Amino acid sequence: ICFALLCHRTKLILILECQATKTCRKYVDLATNTDNANVKVLIDPKQFSRNEANGIIIIDKLQPRDFHILFVPRRSLLCEQRLKEKGVLNSFTNIDEYILDLIPYDGDLLSMESESSFRECYLENDQTSLYHAAKGLMTLQALYGTIPQIFGKGECARHVANMMLRMKREFAGSQTQILPVFDTLLLLDRNVDLLTPLATQLTYEGLIDEIFGITNGYVKLPPEKFAQKKQGEGGKELPTEPKKLQLNSAEELYAEIRDKNFNAVGAALSKKAKIISAAFEERHNAKTVGEIKQFVSQLPHMQAARSSLANHTSIAELIKDITTSEDFFDSLTVEQEFMTGVDTDKVSTYIEDCIAQKDPLIKILRLVCMQSVCNNGLKQKVLDYYKKEILQTYGYKHILTLKNLERVGLLKPQSTMRNNYPTIRKTLKLWMEDANEQNPNDISYVYSGYAPLSVRLTQVLARPGWRSIEEVLKMLPGPHFEERQQVPTGLHKKRQPGENRTILVFFLGGVTYAEIAALRFLSNMEDSGTEYIIAATKLINGTSWIKSLMDSPEENLP
Amino acid sequence: HHYIGATWHVLKIELYEMGWNLKDGLRECLVAAAPYGGPISLLKGHNRRSPSARPQLEIYSSSGLPLASFPWKSGVVKQLGWTVSDDLLCVQEDGTVLVYDLLGGFKRHFSMGNEVSQSQVLETKIFHSPYGTGVAILTGALRFTLATNIDDIKLRRLPEVPGLQGAPSCWAVLTQDRQSKVLVANGSHLFILDNTACTPVTPPGLSPQASSIVHMCVSFSYKYLALLTDSGHVWMGTSNLKEKLSEVDTKIKTPPKQMAWCRRPKSQQPSAVVMWDGLLIVVGECKETIQYHLDDDSILVPELDGVRIISGTHHELLQEVPGACEEIFKIASMAPGALLLEAHKEYEKESQKADEYLREIKEQSLLSEAVRQCVEAAGHEHEPETQKTLLRAASFGKCFLSNFPPEQFVSMCRDLRVLNAVRDYTVGIPLTHTQFKQMTVQVLIDRLVYRKLYPLAIEICRYLKTPEYQGVSRVLKHWACYKVQQKEESDEVIAKAVSVKLADAAGIFYSEIATKAYESGRTELAIKLLEFEPRSGEQVPLLLKMKKSPLALSKAIESGDTDLVYTVVMYLKNELNRGDFFMMLRNQPVALSLYKQFCKHQEQDTLKDLFNQDDDHEELGNLYVKASYKEQRLEARIALLQSAVDEYYKAKNEFSAKTTEDEMRLLRFQRKLEEEKGELLVGFSLHDTMTTLLSVGLHKHAEQLYKDFRVPDKRFWWLKLKSLAEKEDWEELEKFGKSKKSPIGYLPFVEVCIKHHNKYEAKKYVSKVTPEQKVKAHLAVGDMEGAAEAAIERRNESEISTVLSRCSATTDHLLMERLNRAKATAVKK
Questions:
Q1: Per residue in B451-477, pLDDT tens?
Q2: Rounded distance, CA A218 to CA B150, Å?
């Protein structure tokens, strides 16, 4: 069960989600500690129906005084029915919904934070999250005008576009007269590009997410590197609580380095360090009262910059320890071999060795899936060998997980069709041999060579258009389409010369930080002429994605 | 114009000569007239109880045109009143309230509670507040019961009034601090009753001659209060009783029939109207009063900006003269508006005086003020001719102004056309401009719709360019709802008529119309109408109500709203027998997979049945596997796994079947060994089982598993290597290394030994490592010489560089020179 408590912090809305027991306890604490007992509990109906039993009992025991339920993102019949069955529905003063489809995560980023969206759509054939996506897009259009052009690729994209067009028909006559902000909407199914999330992200933000995991805009880091280093205070105890940091573009330095390839972060940090210490040196030059006053007025900003620099230097050190390790290097080498099509058709010794040493299962699954995707399926013999190895090493219970991966297409036996991945790779230039990590000139820098397929599709759509890649589009799963929406007369945007087009890219099934970085890179490219706003059902990485697809029953044997 | 009074001006105009024909006028009648020029209801002979002579309930428009009439068959009515949405409330003696629409159709009834019905209704007042229409009742037990909003009834019984022996001399309801309160006078004592307390209050400066308050009234806005004492004084002040505004002696000591405020919003003057038989007195700030003689029994209807007086023959409006009108029409007025009107008159006569008047205004730079005055005054006039005269004058004045904003003039012209249309005798809604602005076009349209004046309503919407969604479409919807209730026409005709009329209208909700049709017992028509509904989500609830479940299900799926699909599925689950239910789901894959999701969490057994129905053996197998993990007992678990194996074979999934068989085999093995050796193994993976066996020295058993389960050599070697190193059983490790050629090579041996800090053992394997890995092996054991040797031998530039990078400049100086030389030649090659 997930009781999400909402806090508003400047531009961000954060949803704190917790484990069942933990949150229930929190809920009880809140309810008993707050005197006016006017606690709002937000229940995600989806999670609720998953294992509602705990939650209900807790609520029942509470003897609510003045309780409200706000369903997020929408009221749910199933949930209400369950509350009714347990006889607690009437205990709530108010039952309402908090329509929270798209949550702004940053100036150019919206997420639905719908954890299991990919799993539901592709595994369970439950398209609830797509309905919410369509609703969210309708809200967005009510606020920012009708989007005249809709492009899409994939079954889910088609479904969302259909719902949007239908909803628009349904509300004909009631639409607001707003000049469209977005020129184009691009809906992309995650299963059009299964490869990208499997690859290890190599941008700064991507690596933070890969290694430590970013949840709701926050990251928890091992505390050792963040101990206050004050002179003369030796022997101070090290903090034991993980260091929690908020990560978004409100922090100037972070905005600057988040999307860089990690190999370029060191230089950026030392450059910044020089600027900051130079700024502090300025105080010696401040002679007049006015100059001193000006210096002092800048102090808070400079101090913030200095502590921000210290934090990111520590994070970079933590990451560097890992990226320079042999394990990391070997694994990356294999990933890059797969992506360039080297030996994808036979059993990889590296994966074999990793299994033999019982490396984390998710790492294995990511690699095997990647090989399968890059080979457009594995030979039955190879596939069965991997599966057997995994089951023998990690336990037979993972058979259900493997079946799930097969069902969503991450693992598959090679069909009679020939492997079309090389064609896709070549046509879309998915592998760039000499990716420039320091001063990138192509999106491939985010994976040090691999250009994310999803972003390439976006890039080609903007220029020269999808017609140029019809063949490749046909090789990728699901239909591709274009729809036009009637914009009320008088609201047609007349673009000034030099004014950018704005494309909203919606990733159905999740988006990675590296993909976001690639799209931001495209926005900032001098001659791009296009600005990208990104929306997704969820911010994911390979690990969280694979995890969401796992089905490992808890063993109940004594 | 009849302007009366010297110091302050009240105007009485005739609105209508009543169209009704009442034999006895309003005598012996219960009468209620709705504010904002609303309808009038009459109940003649309301005290009659014999069935042979039932009272007659009649409803009229403000102009006296009949809207409805029917004999009253229910109980004794104590009070009539109108709601804010033009519904008639009839409060009966027993506290039952009957609700009728303004065309006499019965809508519903509700009770004011047991306490009221037991002690009976003594007096009732119907009041309006921002929360809707309320009913306040004084019961026979001298207690007040109150409901603030009849659409959401929450009955409140107010506290007792101390010392109350009989009915209080007078009382009123007011809304203060977002709460409805009752003000009660008992003799000279005044109390305010709210939810919790009865508080005595004293009006400041009330004339001392008074020994009792005999009448009271609250202004339309609840801001002001007027009290009439037995000494004939009218006290006027704020309703919070903090301030006295005025007190006037009427010199009449008999109790009046009615009293009402007659004050414009924002007026500086307090003024109230008191009515006795045949006499009407207007009191204000000064001692002087204005008196009117009344020929006939009349009632007063308080309005926002005046009082309407309805008698058996006439309908009049009494108002304070609006400022603008007074300025313009006052005799010998020199106000800019008056001069402009004069100028225009002269202009029409083609007299040059026009210019003189104009110049006079312009010299004082008051022309725009003059235009404004004329426009405003036009708004207050009821005679179209006067309106036109004033507007023409304004338009004339406008010609001499540059940059004068046209909005006020234009919207006033529009408003007046609308007002004149609804004031028309045949419509009978005598709204003033002030009232119209307060009530808004939306509400006016609603009122026209209640009266079924659809064409007029549509014309007004179009004329005022109201957005279709809120205007024309809404009216058409109401029309259609009315249309579908007409029993004499056939389904086809009505459906056609509705669709033709509504075809182009935006935002029509056909589901509402269809619901109306269904409620009038026309299911077929409802289905026809639903076809036109563009929002499939809206079709679903009604389709379910009409038991058209397959259609409801497909519409729900069409909408994409999964919650709606669940609604239908759950409904079907309860309605249909299991077989039919499954059958229906089978034809709707979307619904089926949603239902499966539901079952996965709630009803595992149903899920099994569903898979069985579809012969989905693969899923059945998975289900058994999942279930097996929930089992505590090993036998039960193995039995479930066996079922899974059977299903997997049926599904022709050999891999899953074999794997599951392996799992069973492993479980049995683990169990046997647990029993024999006491080592905890059950639930471990094959790999972990072997590791455990090796770590406790059960090599033979590990070997057996390795063979039985056909574990690849490589993995077994890795496993054994690591286990032995873990145990630091170097001797055994060496034996193992020599047992046959290692399938994983010997670098792992080196690395694993180093990992366990045994350089000595590690070195034993360096020589066995393949040439490609030699450098790495030497480096691992820290043998720089060996590494350099190997690298140089292989003439591999990158390997040489690797070694170089590990060299230390101080100790390995010579080695570095050699390496650099070798590197140079390697590069050359």
A1: 999 999 999 999 988 887 788 888 888
A2: 51
Spatial distance between the Cα atoms of B566 and A79, rounded to a whole number of angstroms:
11
Q: Given strand B279-283, what is the order of strands in its sheet?
A: B258-261, B272-276, B279-283, B290-293
Q: Are residues A88 and A113 in the same domain?
A: no
From the list B580, B578, B508, B528, the residue with the least C-alpha distance to B549 is: B580
Nearest to B216 by CA among B183, B247, B189: B183
Highest mean pLDDT among A182-196, A270-284, B597-611: A182-196
Number of structural domains (chain A) is: 4
For B637, name the nearest residue in chain A, comparing CA atoms only: A557
Q: A74 to chain B: nearest residue by CA?
A: B563
Lowest mean pLDDT among A95-99, A205-209, B608-612, B672-676: A95-99
In angstroms, what CA-CA distances link B672 with A323, A397, B662, B663, B664?
46, 21, 15, 14, 12
Q: Give the integer Cα–Cα distance in Å for B644 and B664.
A: 11
Domain count, chain B: 1
Q: Does residue A293 sit in the same domain as residue A350?
A: no
- Distance (Å) of CA A179 to CA A109, A146, A147, B163, B521: 21, 8, 10, 69, 47
CA torsion, ordered B195, B199, B202, B204, to nearest 10 deg = -60
Q: A196 near A512, Cβ under 8 Å? A: yes
Q: Is residue A371 part of a domain?
A: yes
B517, part of any domain: yes
Domain assignment present for A49: yes
Band (B505; pLDDT cuts 50, 70, 90) = confident
Task: Using the CB atoms, write b or e for A223-251: b if 16+ within 10 Å.
Answer: eebbeeeeeeeeeeeeeeeebebbbbbeb
Cβ atoms B796, B815 nearer than 8 A: no
Distance from CA of B709 to the nearest CA of A (A): 9
Task: Report if residue A187 sits inside a domain.
Answer: yes
| pTM, two decimal places | 0.74
- Name, in order, each residue with C-beta under 8 angstroms of B545's C-beta and a sequence gap of 6 or more: B518
Judge whether B494 and B525 are in contact, CB under 8 Å: yes
Q: What percent of chain A has a predicted confidence (pLDDT) above 70?
A: 80
Q: Of A81, A162, A169, which has the smallest distance from its Cβ to B534's Cβ?
A: A169
Contact B109, B46 (CB under 8 A): no
Q: Which of B504, B655, B680, B707 to mutate to test the interface with A (most CBs of A within 10 A)?
A: B655
Is A209 part of a structural domain of the chain? no
Distance CA A68, CA A70 (A): 6
Give how far B531 is from chain A: nearest CA, Å: 13
Interface test with A, best of B562, B626, B648 (most A CBs within 10 A): B562
Domain that holds residue A265: 238-322
Residue A217 in contact with residue A248, Cβ under 8 Å? yes
Same domain (yes/no): A181, A257 = no
Distance, CA of A309 to CA of A269 (rounded, Å): 7
Which of A211, A219, A196 is CA-nearest to residue A516? A196
The answer to whether residue B658 is domain-embedded is: no
Q: What is the 3-state secondary structure (H, E, C) of B768-800?
A: CCCHHHHHHHHHHCCCHHHHHHHHHHHCCHHHH
- Domain with residue A505: its CATH number is 3.40.50.1910
B352: in domain: yes
> Mean pLDDT across chain A, nearest whole number?
82
pLDDT tens per residue across span B349-380: 988 888 888 888 888 888 989 999 999 999 99
Q: Closest Cα partner for B439 from B304, B601, B311? A: B304
Contact A49 B601 (CB under 8 A): yes
Over its C-alpha atoms, chain B yields an Rg (Å, rounded) of 48
Q: What is the enclosing helix (H) or strand (E) of B635?
A: helix B634-650
Between residues A302 and B267, which one has the greater pLDDT? A302
Task: Count how many Cα atoms sit within 13 Å of the Cα of residue B465 in the half-sphere of its side chain.
Answer: 2
